């Protein structure tokens, strides 16, 4: 229930521009501002690139007489250029997408049909306790980490959370395409469009997660915007709630200031302790932090430096 | 190749986004001016042993001492100013030894209830939306409009060194959500905070809370709209006890707050047959206030549009919550706030609201009704019906009412009431569109009613509403967006 079904898909297939005006984030700024600021330079450039792409996409799609969904089902990967989105999204704004009332309300059979076949009533095999999401990738972007992690932990369900509508749509198509071309694989990853800073407890029960990822988050440089950062002392309370004791939180960024900030937040929080360097060296996940994501590859290509902070959820000592 | 195109277009999007944001913010300033956001409900709070009753309406605190049978004017020793803007939250605490008031003027004032001196006045960064006092009386917690919960420590010898450590310390927060209520659990081991994003968070209250209360015990999730009120109940033999909550979805819910498990839901709005049609959608009005006795034997609920209160019956072993009785008061009496004296088991209700349109010199009218006769064996049904006290039966009598209600006329209200009720019905229909100040002849009761109406109207349009799963309205989006970023 958490995926807004098909809206982004229609857009691509038919090139209907009117549609995204009603969508929350994603496409709306384009249409929106076109009417209001016709003279803006950077903007008109963005418009040209967008409008150049659009007809082409329409042609490509219609010549195939096929929807994007069918394409991804047939295993062809979606192309990023058709899922352009703003680099930033305001996490403070109210959201207009469906959110589960509570974790019990989260529709597993929709996200992981292989593990929760229809008719199983959302429960996995018989007596075993129902399988739950174990890894959360907060701000999963284009989903590179999920795709990289999936074969490493084939039995662990992973959920990407992304605020930008179009990006979520891309990841969804990407996963469907991967599943179609690699039967039996990539069944353990899925994505939801949500604001994890506000609604994390609606998705995960206490101690449900064993790993959380915060890769290349929005730096929010201005001091007055620091409260929009995805790692903060306040929010770490909620992450500690969702993580099991011993669970690990992985953060990485190419912005030194943000790296320092994330590290000091984690350092100051009594429910987290740093994972020793020796352990990181043998953790296969750590290598993926900088290599698997699109953002990480971009940084590596440009020869940039990355700043990593990996911390473990610990139990609070009784005083 | 594809990459470079993307970077450029991203830049373009950024510019567009920035422009769009500026635009909505400009539009917003105007929008906000038109909203009646300053209307605040009248609040009532009663000392646990009914030694005194306090009413807050607008920026005014009215106090009546029932022990000495006299009205008391509050004295402020702390040097700070009195409240200068709407009071949003008041409460007794520390077994009745303390009282705290706070609101839109960003001042948290802590009063010693013996002398009624203000022992502490702490200024907050943002407007305050909720306050709570720990039961042992050592801490005062308050929440601001950014969703941050702050703590003030009160020491025994506070009178001597109050100025030294006059700062509040942030202890935890809800991410950018307005906190609607704060409550300490009966054993002070937990603090419950509810917000407009449907959430109730139960946080372990540590022994050294100034270092932060970071361990979340549970989230109570189930409300489908904002949560407006919380009340703990601790019947003996049930461990940590239970939590009741009421909300914009017109329900009262019973929680095992230790695990966050929803035990029972009562659709009180539907049970009280308060269906309201707005446009195409039928809905039930929100629960505005709730209070319960500590053993859970009395649970009273105020609902918008209900001229009375709903009494609930909770069977803790069966985990059921049902409507026991609807106590109706006179037509047009819609309580905005409830308070229960645990000792005398009398329920105090008030109707009224502040109105920024009224000149500040006039006393804001309120109306108080008291309900008595709750018996321990109420669940046995019948015979023990709660009674609504007549004005002359109210503790403190006319003296109390004239002080707390703001006008001596109101005590002789019966005739005026009938006329007022009639007039108000006509008035209310036109009131919703016009903003004309009250005519001078309006009776106080009528004014109180109209203020309350205005309050309820704002309540349903204000920031508490307009949440996810409702509809995709751009204008609403930008309005609520602003509310998350309150100045």
Automatic annotation (TrEMBL), chain A:
Binding site for S-adenosyl-L-methionine: 139, 162-163, 195-196, 215, 293-295
Function: Catalyzes the formation of N(7)-methylguanine at position 46 (m7G46) in tRNA.
Keyword Transcription regulation among UniProt keywords: no
SUPFAM superfamilies per the UniProt record, alphabetical: S-adenosyl-L-methionine-dependent methyltransferases
HAMAP family reported for this sequence: tRNA_methyltr_TrmB_euk
Record's GO cellular component terms: nucleus; tRNA methyltransferase complex
Protein's recorded name: tRNA (guanine-N(7)-)-methyltransferase
Subcellular location: Nucleus
Predominant cellular place of this UniProt entry's protein: nucleus
Region feature Disordered, mapped onto this chain: 1-79
InterPro entries: SAM-dependent_MTases_sf, Trm8_euk, tRNA_(Gua-N-7)_MeTrfase_Trmb
Pathway the protein acts in: tRNA modification; N(7)-methylguanine-tRNA biosynthesis
Pfam hit, one: Methyltransf_4
Compositional bias annotation for Polar residues: 46-72
Catalytic reaction(s) noted: guanosine(46) in tRNA + S-adenosyl-L-methionine = N(7)-methylguanosine(46) in tRNA + S-adenosyl-L-homocysteine
PANTHER family: 3-DEOXY-D-MANNO-OCTULOSONIC-ACID TRANSFERASE/TRNA GUANINE-N 7 - -METHYLTRANSFERASE (PTHR23417), TRNA (GUANINE-N(7)-)-METHYLTRANSFERASE (PTHR23417:SF16)
Compositionally skewed regions (Basic and acidic residues) per UniProt: 8-23
Family: Belongs to the class I-like SAM-binding methyltransferase superfamily. TrmB family.
Lineage, top ranks: Eukaryota, Viridiplantae, Streptophyta, Embryophyta, Tracheophyta
CDD domains hit by this protein: AdoMet_MTases (cd02440)
GO MF annotations, alphabetized: tRNA (guanine(46)-N7)-methyltransferase activity; tRNA binding
Keyword list, A-Z: Methyltransferase, Nucleus, RNA-binding, S-adenosyl-L-methionine, Transferase, tRNA processing, tRNA-binding
EC number: 2.1.1.33
Active-site feature positions: 218
Superkingdom of source: Eukaryota
UniProtKB/TrEMBL annotation, chain B:
Similarity section: Belongs to the WD repeat TRM82 family.
Family matches, as InterPro entries: Trm82 (IPR028884), WD40/YVTN_repeat-like_dom_sf (IPR015943), WD40_repeat_dom_sf (IPR036322), WD40_rpt (IPR001680)
Subunit structure: Forms a heterodimer with the catalytic subunit.
UniProt-annotated location(s): Nucleus
Keyword Nucleotide-binding attributed: no
Protein name: tRNA (guanine-N(7)-)-methyltransferase non-catalytic subunit
WD repeats, residue ranges: 83-111, 220-265
Associated pathway: tRNA modification; N(7)-methylguanine-tRNA biosynthesis
PROSITE patterns, alphabetized: WD_REPEATS_2, WD_REPEATS_REGION
Keyword Repeat carried by entry: yes
SUPFAM superfamilies hit by this protein: WD40 repeat-like
Family annotation (Pfam families): WD40 (PF00400)
UniProt function note: Required for the formation of N(7)-methylguanine at position 46 (m7G46) in tRNA. In the complex, it is required to stabilize and induce conformational changes of the catalytic subunit.
GO annotation (BP), single: tRNA (guanine-N7)-methylation
Domain of life: Eukaryota
Family annotation (SMART domains): WD40
Keywords, alphabetical: Nucleus, Repeat, tRNA processing, WD repeat
GO CC, any one term: nucleus
């Amino acid at each position: 229930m958490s995926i807004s079904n098909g809206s982004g898909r229609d857009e691509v297939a038919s090139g209907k521009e009117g549609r995204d005006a009603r969508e929350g984030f994603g496409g709306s700024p384009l249409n929106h501002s076109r009417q209001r600021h016709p003279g803006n330079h950077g903007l008109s450039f963005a418009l040209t690139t967008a409008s150049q792409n659009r007809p082409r996409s329409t042609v490509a799609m219609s010549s195939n007489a096929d929807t994007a969904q069918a394409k991804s089902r047939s295993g062809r990967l979606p192309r990023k250029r058709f899922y352009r989105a703003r680099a930033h999204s305001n996490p403070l704004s109210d959201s207009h997408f469906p959110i589960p009332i509570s974790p019990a309300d989260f529709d597993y059979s929709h996200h992981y049909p292989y593990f929760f076949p229809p008719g199983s009533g959302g429960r996995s095999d018989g007596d075993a306790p129902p399988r739950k999401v174990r890894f959360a990738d907060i701000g999963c972007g284009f989903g590179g980490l999920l795709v990289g992690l999936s074969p490493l932990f084939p039995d662990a369900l992973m959920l990407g959370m992304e605020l930008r509508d179009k990006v979520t749509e891309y990841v969804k198509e990407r996963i469907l395409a991967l599943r179609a071309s690699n039967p039996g694989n990539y069944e353990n990853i899925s994505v939801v469009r949500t604001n994890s800073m506000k609604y994390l407890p609606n998705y995960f029960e206490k101690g449900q997660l064993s790993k959380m990822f915060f890769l290349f988050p929005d730096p929010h440089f201005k001091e007055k915007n620091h409260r929009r950062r995805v790692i903060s002392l306040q929010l770490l309370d909620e992450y500690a709630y969702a993580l099991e004791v011993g669970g690990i939180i992985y953060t990485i960024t190419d912005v030194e200031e943000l790296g320092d900030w994330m590290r000091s937040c984690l350092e100051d929080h009594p429910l987290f302790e740093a994972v020793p360097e020796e352990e990181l060296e043998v953790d296969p996940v750590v290598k993926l932090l900088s290599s698997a994501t699109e953002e990480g590859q971009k940084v590596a290509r440009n020869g940039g430096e990355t700043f990593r902070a990996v911390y473990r959820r610990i139990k609070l000592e009784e005083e | 190749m594809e990459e470079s195109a993307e970077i450029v277009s991203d830049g373009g999007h950024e510019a567009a986004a920035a422009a769009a944001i500026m635009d909505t913010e400009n539009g917003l300033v105007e929008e906000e001016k038109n909203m009646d956001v300053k209307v605040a409900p009248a609040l009532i709070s009663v000392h646990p042993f009914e030694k005194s009753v306090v009413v807050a309406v607008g920026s005014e605190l009215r106090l009546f001492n029932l022990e000495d049978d006299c009205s008391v004017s509050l004295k402020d020793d702390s040097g700070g100013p009195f409240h200068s803007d709407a009071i949003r939250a008041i409460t007794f605490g520390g077994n009745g030894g303390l009282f705290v008031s706070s609101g839109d003027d960003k001042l948290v004032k802590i009063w010693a209830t013996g002398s009624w001196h203000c022992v502490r006045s702490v200024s907050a960064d943002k407007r305050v939306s909720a306050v709570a006092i720990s039961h042992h009386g050592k801490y005062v917690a308050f929440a601001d409009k950014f969703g941050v919960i702050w703590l003030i420590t009160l020491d025994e010898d506070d009178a001597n060194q109050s100025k030294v450590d006059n700062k509040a310390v942030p202890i935890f927060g809800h991410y950018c959500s307005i906190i609607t209520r704060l409550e300490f659990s009966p054993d002070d081991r937990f603090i419950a905070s509810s917000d407009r994003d449907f959430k109730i968070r139960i946080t372990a209250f540590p022994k050294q809370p100034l270092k932060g209360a970071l361990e979340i015990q549970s989230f109570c999730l189930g409300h489908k709209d904002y949560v407006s009120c919380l009340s703990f109940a601790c019947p003996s033999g049930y461990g940590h006890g239970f939590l009741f909550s009421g909300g914009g979805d017109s329900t009262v819910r019973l929680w095992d707050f230790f695990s966050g498990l929803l035990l029972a839901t009562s659709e009180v709005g539907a049970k009280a047959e308060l269906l309201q049609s707005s446009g195409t959608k039928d809905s039930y009005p929100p629960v505005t206030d709730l209070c319960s006795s500590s053993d859970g034997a009395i649970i009273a609920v105020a609902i918008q549009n209900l001229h009375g209160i709903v009494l609930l019956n909770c069977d803790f072993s069966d985990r059921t919550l049902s409507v026991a009785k609807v106590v109706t008061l006179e037509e047009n009496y819609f309580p905005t706030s409830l308070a229960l004296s645990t000792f005398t088991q009398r329920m105090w209700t008030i109707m009224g609201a502040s109105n920024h349109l009224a000149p500040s010199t006039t006393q804001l009218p309120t109306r108080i009704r008291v309900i008595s006769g709750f018996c321990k064996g109420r669940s046995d049904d019948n015979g023990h019906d709660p009674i609504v006290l007549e004005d002359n039966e109210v503790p403190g009598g006319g003296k109390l009412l004239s002080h707390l209600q703001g006008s001596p006329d109101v005590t002789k209200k019966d005739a005026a009431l009938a006329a007022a009720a009639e007039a108000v019905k006509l008035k209310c229909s036109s009131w919703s569109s016009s903003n004309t100040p009250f005519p001078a002849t309006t009776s106080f009761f009528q004014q109180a009613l109209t203020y309350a109406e205005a309050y309820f109207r704002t309540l349903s349009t204000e920031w508490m509403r307009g949440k996810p799963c409702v509809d995709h309205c751009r204008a609403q989006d930008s309005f609520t967006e602003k509310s998350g970023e309150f100045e």
